[in-house]
């Protein structure tokens, strides 16, 4: 199968390339309009970086832009405008070494999060969720401070907004998801009307108040099936915490003919299965068969999971429609999370072709250096429940085949080895083939993403190889991730070198 897939992708890409070459002058690529900056997004390779307010406050706007432009060859900024999460905002995360720029003082005690631009309250009248200015840099307005200077340099600016909250924000408790055990969580229910209104309000505020080129939306939350199984790299397994079973979900289910009580019963059974599996209590037919039987007896388990996806995709669509209604030239992109790369069940719920109908570009996470420890964690998680009968190393090899990974390190050595640049190539190529030219693919490149002590640390060579691999696979651009405040300048240099070489061909 992997061979078949690669061959198909190759033929497809080959055909696309031939078509493009044949189009020649018709494609409008003349020296004259190569000199104008007034080109649509697709005609210019995007060399992006994710960066938060703290870096501009610590190091100065012009100085940071100089570094990004001269060293990283960056032409597109993804400014972390709304989040309460540390993945995109704040300095280096606590416990990790600081890079060779910026303040070396931890912001563990001062980090707060929120809207790093200035929220305009009139947009948020119809939602209980308060959009508060992030307080840690006083009145500093990220977009107002960076936009004019960046525009002068011909850079594109996207506002990154992330569905990450803290429990003390007004409205969060009311809009929170309800788990299987009836507890309110810290994550927001995507069927709650106030949550849906909030995302529309936020992107309206940003696009009407600032001269941005578009929005990049981050939402890494997953549905109840993945929650229950802990079938990802970033969580421990607690099947009783599967979400969401709130009143708004019940209503949405009813409208679609999904039986709430049966769904809940199914997830209770799944919870019992997961708990027993974790203790090593093997069903007489084995773990996998028992799991599969549950899915057959309770089709509502999958229906409830699909309902979650629907809620998530409705918001993506709503954001896209809202932004386009404000200005049809603005671009909308979605961050496609790492679990999409590791988990074949999750992959099946995400069709690139379908996502392409809701976005101008997809940022596909291809983080390879930290990918080693993350993928190993994922394998250990699924190997402790559904696939518990399979020795872990064999499970990983089998999964590698399903995912069309190449020759990666053994499970034992994977965290220290990381995933390879070939992984970046394959994941980018899969995305490019998947969207069938309907939207752009920007590869999310791992530039020194923090890892555990014994795991691989991103080097300049890693940054160079991953960036080259993404472009070689046909990416329309890259987004250096996760944030400038955790990147070493030598790695930025290396990514910049790869970008320059690619542009020159
Ligand atoms: Zn809900």
Question: What would the keywords be for this entry?
Answer:
single chain; about 500 residues; alpha/beta; TIM Barrel; 8-stranded parallel barrel; two-stranded antiparallel ribbon; 21 helices; disordered N terminus; binds zinc ion
General description of the model:
The chain is α/β, with parallel strands linked by helices. The protein has one domain (43-221, 311-504): Glycosidases (TIM Barrel, Alpha-Beta Barrel), CATH 3.20.20. Helices cover 47% and strands 12% of the residues. The chain contains 21 helices and 11 strands. It has helices spanning 2-23, 31-35, 53-59, 61-72, 142-152, 172-175, 193-209, 224-229, 247-255, 260-278, 287-297, 299-326, 339-342, 344-349, 352-355, 371-382, 392-403, 414-417, 421-435, 460-472, 489-504, and strands at 46-51, 76-83, 114-115, 156-162, 176-178, 184-188, 214-218, 331-336, 361-365, 440-446, 477-481. The strands form 2 sheets. It has an 8-stranded parallel barrel, surrounded by 7 helices. It starts with a helix and ends with a helix. Bound molecules: zinc ion. Zinc ion is lined by residues 177, 189, 191, 244, 246, 248-249. Zinc ion (ZN) is lined by residues 177, 189, 191, 244, 246, 248-249.
